[in-house]
Write a structure and sequence with these properties.
- The structure holds 3 protein chains of 3 kinds.
- Chain A is 39% helix and 12% strand.
- Chain A contains 16 helices and 11 strands.
- Chain A starts with 8 loop residues before the first helix and ends in a 16-residue tail after the last helix.
- Chain B is 31% helix and 10% strand.
- In chain B, strand 2 and strand 3 form a beta hairpin.
- The model of chain B has no long low-confidence stretch (mean pLDDT 90).
- Classes of the chains: A alpha/beta, B alpha+beta, C alpha+beta.
- Chains A and B meet through helix 10, helix 11, helix 12, helix 13 and helix 14 of A and helix 1, helix 2 and strand 3 of B.
- Strand 1 of chain B pairs parallel with strand 2 (69-70) of chain C, so a sheet runs across the interface.
- Bound molecules: magnesium ion and zinc ion.
- Residues 23, 224 of chain C line the site of magnesium ion.
- Zinc ion binds at residues 25, 143, 178 of chain C.
Amino acid sequence: MSDIIRLTAAELGEKISAGEISSVEATQAHLDRIAAVDGDVHAFLHVNEHALAAAAEVDARRAAGEQLGPIAGVPLAVKDVLVTTDMPSTSGSKILEGYMSPFDATVVARSRAAGLVPLGKTNMDEFAMGSSTEFSAYGPTRNPWDLDRIPGGSGGGSAAAVAAFEAPLALGSDTGGSIRQPAHVTGTVGIKPTYGGVSRYGAIALASSLDQVGPVTRTVLDAGLLHDVIGGHDPKDSTSLPQEWPSFAAAAREGASGQVLKGLKVGVITELPDSGFQAGVAASFRASLALMEAQGAEIVEISAPHFEYGVAAYYLILPAEASSNLAKFDSVRFGLRVTPDGNPTVEDVMSATREAGFGPEVKRRIILGTYALSAGYYDAYYGSAQKVRTLIQQDFARAFGQVDVIATPSAPTTAFKIGEKIDDPLQMYLNDLTTIPANLAGVPGISIPSGVAAEDGLPVGIQFLAPAHEDARLYRVGAALEAALLDSWGEPLLARAPQLLGGTR
Amino acid sequence: MLARIQLSDDEVTQLTGQLDAIVDNIAKVSEVATPDVVATSHPIAMSNVFRPDEVGETLTLEQTLKNAPDAADGRFRVTAILGEEQ
Amino acid sequence: MATAKLMDFDKALEMFEPVLGFEVHVELNTRTKMFSDAPNPANDEFHGAEPNTLIAPVDLGLPGSLPVVNATAVRSSISLGLALGCSIAESSRFARKNYFYPDLGKNYQISQYDEPIAFEGSVEVELEDGTLVTIPVERAHMEEDAGKLTHMGGATGRIQGAEYSLVDYNRAGVPLVEIVTKPIFGAEHRAPEYAKAYIAAIRDIVRGLGISEARLERGNLRCDANVSLRPRGQEKLGTRTETKNVNSMRSVERAVRYEIQRQAAILADGGTIIQETRHWHEDTGTTSPGRPKSDADDYRYFPEPDLLPVQPSRELVDELRAALPEQPVARRRRLKADWGFTDLEFQDVRNGGLIDEVEATIAAGAAPAAARKWWTGEITRIANAQDRDAAGLVSPSDVAALQGLVDAGTLTDKLARQVLEGVIAGEGSPQQVVDSRGLAVVSDDGALIAAIDDALAAQPDVLAKIKDGKVQAAGAVIGAVMKAMKGQADAARVRELVLERAAQ
Ligand SMILES: [Mg+2]
Ligand SMILES: [Zn+2]
């Protein structure tokens, strides 16, 4: 395996900047890696045939003396939920097979402008509905730690690509944990920014009031570097926050010095007892807290009594908004069209198209959402769920009156086997128990690797949550713990993942 | 049907069972959603986000029709419409 | 379709009390659409564009596209709300109205539901005889228009029997304000007139504000008319029908009359009215059943998560209130007094929709009486003959210039009418028509005297009568002279000269 792909984005950016490696070489190394292992991992739905040309252009810009940013020339994997002009955008669905967007998502446009090289589009649960990437219409992605296990979801493709060294950086989207939960099960870093911190323009909407785009990487610093590129106000997204943001890369560098843990108050939620988690997940979580305590942090028990209603509220709000957002897939302007025999009316064509084009999980949620919004049920379901949102925000406000950050395990279990939960939607929905409250309340969250579970040797993540607008705090704290853990391990967690040789599938 | 998805009988049976279980589970939101709690529709409260009334770049006709399953005469083509305009 | 049984209108009114309600959609003339920066076809500058050429991603509901609210559309909506006497909501929000239809790019319409921008107002409406009535307004809300369907392969271009349809999304996203009245009571036999006068009032208001092109024939204003009947003495409202998209003032008047007669016939026969939408057919002057209201009308409204609340500041509302133009009714009262018109004279101008034209003609220098005479007389006559609107047929400044030529003695009234025809035919300004057609009055006495002498010589008996003092006999000679001069002479001057010559 080439050394280039083992570099972090920050290191690779420095080497490209110093002229030690060209962007073309860096891009080629990753394309080679994809060619070697993606048959097994299936992280990518599409590999960008223009990647080398884009890399050559960045090299030319640099040669012409242009001042480029710190990660210019570094390859980037793009979750297929983000529309791109030069590659198809499907959101993991058959109904959008081959769809070519006339515009780039804002985060993609900003990435290109910063000299990042789009490598391809990564696999995901159809329309981001799922926690395992098993619900992709194009087949599952496999976890690089164990090819029989799920890589998390919905952004399993982006997390697996980064964990398998197919890309140093990836873009994800997180509606209920779709960045953080895959990070947890693949031993990578994922951040869901404050709602409105990163533009949603060009992100194919799942649940508009919950969706956030964010970075998927192997280190906290890399996430900060990517966040600096994609974040900030976008007039094309009305919910985009107008504020100026500090540099998240700078926050990560500051955190890595370790000083930030001194006197830091870390909240642990009483209502999420260890008994609710797989033993190895809870153990890893407690070990991380102990490490932080050893560095001067104070662990504080806090109460968040309404978190337990989060999953229920989420599974009303998400399907309701999704049922409306997905109504546009009707065979009229774009996407699949299925025309039944006889003299079908447009109504028949729409129904047949949606029957054929949507997978079972998508249908399940559209029907649930349609029901939750219908007259007579709105108040009991959607209306009540919006109230739970208020209660969870109040829980956060109270908690952040006492602590600087909240810590939880990122998910209840390590990666489960492909197929294990696919027929049990309720069980599947509980995967997002700890990640959902952040989406409901709009606050930022980060998941970083905390170790492996003793019983299965699979990676575990720890999640930190901060008040809205305080994303930089997560970079400082995340980078501080990351540095302490690296010290204790002597190598990155991913070094323990099995070597992928390719060709097993 | 409001969701405009034609479902097979098998699918209807399977979905009904799953949806009942899910709905039972999520009905718990009404336990805490008392009348005094206000609803939150947007996670971060903002207001008055407007755009100046200035013409931007439009799509070309080619871009507009590029992904159309069927088009004729510069327009999207659909089979006969049963229902009425709202 | 079977023709419905109708009851005599007066008899229907004896038995039943009509209750009205209107929903008027006003297309705003902002430069761009409600939620996208694509050009707005309801603005004159972009009207008539080729299909699907005024399109931004959100107008097609393209994956990843997002709406952003047009600031000017919000201002226009607030101004309209204020002009309707409404309160402006301190906080107002958008909602999604979900239903599948191919003219909707997203299969939901962004509209307002529980928190409209304006609510609780009233409009003063003037009936044809000048009677003022107050129409109560429930709300005015912002929303977006849908695209346009063309039904192909059917015999009539209607939806029924069409083989396929074509969709143009240029109109998708055009900013609309929907004005909804409360139930209107007390219209009685003037119900059809109420309908027409209400639409005229809305048109005048939005024109006065300059926020819409306000052309009914283009659909800039579209009216849904709700009609229900209840037996005399009954408290409970009857079941209503909603006649959709009646797009001229005459049609809305006819549609209301027709629905009263149709519903009365059904109720008198012991039948029941079905709550449904109905379609107006201009050609036959009838309505036909459309979509019944049903459970399928569950629009699953919910707050639009992609957009934020609109919370206009006090300062903005005060600023827009201060900038409101004079209310149309007050303005009419003022103009009538300024111009010194009688009730009948003023009604003539107003009913012809010619107030703006007369005002502009007077401003361009014509006397009020002359301005009125031109517009309600000759110009209206020509407009009717050509089946066109009098307003817009000729510019007020040309009319004033024409009257100026009459006042200067260059034209007789009769010549001026010929010049007007030339101007309307596009031959240029009044002066240019006078020049090119050679229509000026002949003021050369020499030429006139020669013609008079010829005429007197040809009618010696008339000359004798005049000499006898029978001056009225001169008429025959004057007529002959005018004919010889092809009308281009001042008849008064001719008369003077005839008497002069006859005396010699
Ligand atoms: Mg309506
Ligand atoms: Zn409307």
